[in-house]
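Feature request, filed as a ticket because there's no other form

It would be nice if the structure record came with a short human-readable summary line next to the tokens. Right now we just get the raw output. Example of a typical job, pasted below so the devs can see what we mean:
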Amino acid sequence: MYKNSERLLTKALGVIPLGSQTFSKSLTQYPKGVSPFFIEKGKGAKVWDVDGNEYIDFVNSLAAVTLGYCDADVDQAVQMQMQNGVTFSLPHKLEIELAEKLIEIIPCAQKVRFAKNGTDATSAAIRIARAYTGKEHIAVCGYHGWQDWYIGSTTRDFGVPKAVKELTHKFEYNNLKSLEKIFQEQELACVIMEPMNVEYPKDHFLEKVKELVHKNNALLIFDETITGFRYSLGGAQELFNVIPDLATFGKGIANGYPLSAVVGNDKVMQKVEDIFFSGTFGGETLSLAAADAVIDKYKKAEVIKHFTEIGSYLLEQLNQLIDNEKLNDIFWTSGHPSWSFLHIKEQKEYNVFEIKTLLLQEMFKRGILTLGSHNISLSHTKKNIDELLAVYAKVLPKIKQHTKNRDLLENIHGDVLQPLFKVR
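Raw output as currently delivered:
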């Protein structure tokens, strides 16, 4: 079933660490022996691997694809711009046009600076905040990319100097006291956080964080790399009506084309002129043209409404399935309709990674590409959701039965996933 994928993986491992450019697209996340490793093409909500297997894709390039693969409007905009050139010796007017559109739709945005990855944008935001406040320590909550200032606070901290690690402090979502404690011990330049990932904010958490941050003369940064262009067009800050000083956007901003942005109020963003945040490809025009078309399509096609409706239907039906089949002791769901999660609970006989390996094996086998989340795109139809639910209806009870029979490992036909580090 995965003969060509396995062959290419062996080849890739000889020339590419982990066989992939992206950690979450590698064999660290996809169990060897039971997973596809290389995709040949995509169209709409579907992808085809190099062995010709067809999948409904709920990974969507790690949530970067929000409209669907090969969206006609986006591709047309890119192809038109391609005829005039990609990267020039001077700026292109698209930089102005897209910046103006982002300022129009994002509440905190008065100035914009473009980059390529979410990590570029979050790292720039941290540098801006440190320059603006004159302070060095920062507090983090969520996942913010691979640079030293953040990844040094995780268990994947190899190669990060101790001095850098000591400047970053972690706090818990929906736990204001955990952030208050950091402020009591440190002078913080900023707090950077995902405004939401797994949990909804409780008891006005975001408002209280903002009040606490400003009371201590620090800056509030929302990392909206995923929540932007999913929760609402203006991001989670628009949905929850809590406006940060700075925000970072990426992933869905250009439907898979490489683009990210740092946005914020005029006074703070003016510091970009004093720090060094510059890249040759920041003004690359194909991605700018793609983002321009994405914003237009969001407005015309009511994309956010589609996410909310179809994602809510998925969660309602999946929760009903879990209840009806009495699967609550193993599975539970969380998240926003546009970006929701199926979680696995540790069992007495089996750990989460063993159960997840069997889950992925069985989902892939039945034509569903997932890593445990549901990253909805405009291309997903109700029929696609029903197909996903039908597969869950077969696979989840099967996993419970194997757990009960204590033969789960015997039914895994490849390598079991190994614990590495939690990104959130």
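Something like this underneath would help us a lot:
Residues 87-283 form a domain with the Aspartate Aminotransferase; domain 2 fold (CATH 3.40.640.10).
The chain is about 40% helix and 15% strand.
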